[in-house]
Protein: Alpha-1,4 glucan phosphorylase
Organism: Engystomops pustulosus
Amino acid sequence: MGRTLQNTMINLGLQNACDEAIYQLGLDIEELEEMEEDAGLGNGGLGRLAACFLDSMATLGLAAYGYGIRYEYGIFNQKIKDGWQVEEADDWLRHGNPWEKARPEYMLPVHFYGRVENTKTGPRWVDTQVVLAMPYDTPVPGYMNNTVNTMRLWSARAPNDFNLRDFNVGDYIQAVLDRNLAENISRVLYPNDNFFEGKELRLKQEYFVVAASLQDIIRRFKASKFGCRDSVRTGFDSFPEKVAIQLNDTHPALGIPELMRIFLDIEKLPWDKAWEITKKTFAYTNHTVLPEALERWPVDLVEKLLPRHLQIIYEINQRHLDKISALYPGDVDRLRRMSLIEEDGIKRINMAHLCIVGSHAVNGVAKIHSEIVKNQVFKDFSDIEPAKFQNKTNGITPRRWLLLCNPGLAELIAEKIGEDYVKDLSQLTKLNKFVNDDIFIRDVSKVKEENKLKFIQYLEKEYKMRLNPSSMFDVQVKRIHEYKRQLLNCLHIITMYNRIKANPTKEFVPRTVIIGGKAAPGYHMAKLIIKLITSVGDIVNNDPMVGSKLKVIYLENYRVSLAEKVIPATDLSEQISTAGTEASGTGNMKFMLNGALTIGTMDGANVEMAEEAGEENLFIFGMRVDDVAEMDKKGYNAQEYYHRLPELKQVIDQIQSGFFSPSKPELFKDLVDMLFYHDRFKVFADYEAYVKCQERVSALYKKPKEWTKVVIKNIAASGKFSSDRTIKEYAKDIWGVEPSDLKIPPPNEPREAMEDLKPANAKA
Ligand SMILES: *Cc1c(COP(=O)(O)O)cnc(C)c1O
């Protein structure tokens, strides 16, 4: 979520009044804003996407809840020490959290372990251990519409009789100490991005959020006139009309067997009815096709923790496979491929398969990604139900990612096209009228300059380092991952360094290369990549022959509040993943909206950014998805590039010989070995095209006016990437809900004004 104060003031239309009031008190509101901790309750783009969606749903007037876990420790704080990443605990609640309200009256029990007992009235899950889920509510205000939704996060609490009933009788002290075991469930966020780690505590977290949220949803449904006690059975028929649950990746996949368990074992619905309602209720968003990221939980672990759910998953699978057999008699390989249970090696549950089978809609998050999902990764499933598969291209909220982070640009745009664009970002196309307007061009470049100066001030304070404001700010900020190819960026930095050294008098377009992002603490290669970047920075930044032509900054502890500072100050946005690996990206969209140009591959939403702005207005380079597939067929040979490209050879030889790690020449051996012998992301294959493309970037940057014209074209073309557009598509194509256009009066207006609401509400 990041910070809440400024976002709240903006959405309530109170920012100017608050700024003025604080100023009158002789205080500085920015200083106050800087004191707030980020709520770092997710890893990278996936969690921030959910936050943008909450803002858009409230702004569009959709009655929606965001459910999650109230982690006591969010994503770790990253320190860079001696060039290495060091993790520190994120104790974000230490000074309290003024935005949340505990709701003990809505506390709910969640069961774990135990066994299944077969009774006359059906299976019963018994002898379980209970953990309580305490909800904490955070208001989610819409933008200037007097509407507030709720984000409800669950915190684990031990019941008061925890460990005091059975074998532990008599050891009271130990029993109280053991309450931690239960409360550990919501202690800490697992810090992996795009990587599955099959830990029992993580599985507990996934069931905990799902079990608490489903009880909450069903209680609310039953309290409504649609699910009242007189008509429980007919009432559940209307459940999918009143409730839509969107699964943000497979992390809440257990919601599917959990809702089935509630319908079957508690509400006593027959299987077919329960299954029909469940499928109509759930929809699944896939966020990655990287195999190492797909959740495949060991059957043994699920059986121990959730024995009844395992039975239900087996029953879902049996009926699913029976259908496949009927459609494709004798095709055993297809059955093996499509099973929810993988049988090679230790038995595992494929959670994506469970989500596809248990949902009425499945979507990818950018056009190219949705095509890969439908036609490659889950082709067997789309063969049977092609209409189930959809695309919903991601988006970002223009409130946080323009009004909040870049008020200068937001105001400049408003001067030209009015303020309505904030709620209808497609109106940014009106800026195309001003592409050749010299005054507008000057004003746009002035806003960028001011944003850069402000960011330089921040960096000089934080890093004790002087930066050249007329240099191009070349920025890659995102989680550190091999597929995102920060290494390709690093090879380019070294290439520029070598060119300056070889030809010191030749003109060079000055650059400040900024790289930032967290590596998962257990991801050895990602941590080594950080060390390489900081080591290259140590050499480059201290070489007097280089001077202010080239600087390399490793931006420590990249997080939402830092993104808000660096993105508006960026000239060049690096979006250079291997084609076919980045599902969408949302960082790419934030930069585009804030007046940076993009150097990128034809991957994720970059493809649609190029479609919107015209390919000639982005710096597109490198292999396309088809080229990558062809190379996989022929075999990728890194040595070939190394021997053919002298500048690449020089760069790799330097890394290998210890030029950047003189006190430890072998330091980057694992990294160089990877690049030569097991680089799944083909860094060398795109090196030449990337370096050439960067030369075109520098050439354009030398012509500031031409550069800014392209910037304006990009801003004008970025309207598609509002999360308001994304959410309207989910609402129409998946949830079947209409965005409300009710004008809700402010709370201090007379009650008569509320009369308008009644007929519309009654209809709903
Ligand atoms: C937007 C955002 C991301 C996602 O960036 P990508 O470049 O799409 O991976 C990650 N972290 C933070 C803090 C963000 O704001």
Notes: DSSP finds 33 helices and 22 strands in the chain. Residues 756-764 have pLDDT under 50 and may be disordered. The first strand starts at residue 65 and ends at 69. The radius of gyration is 27 Å.
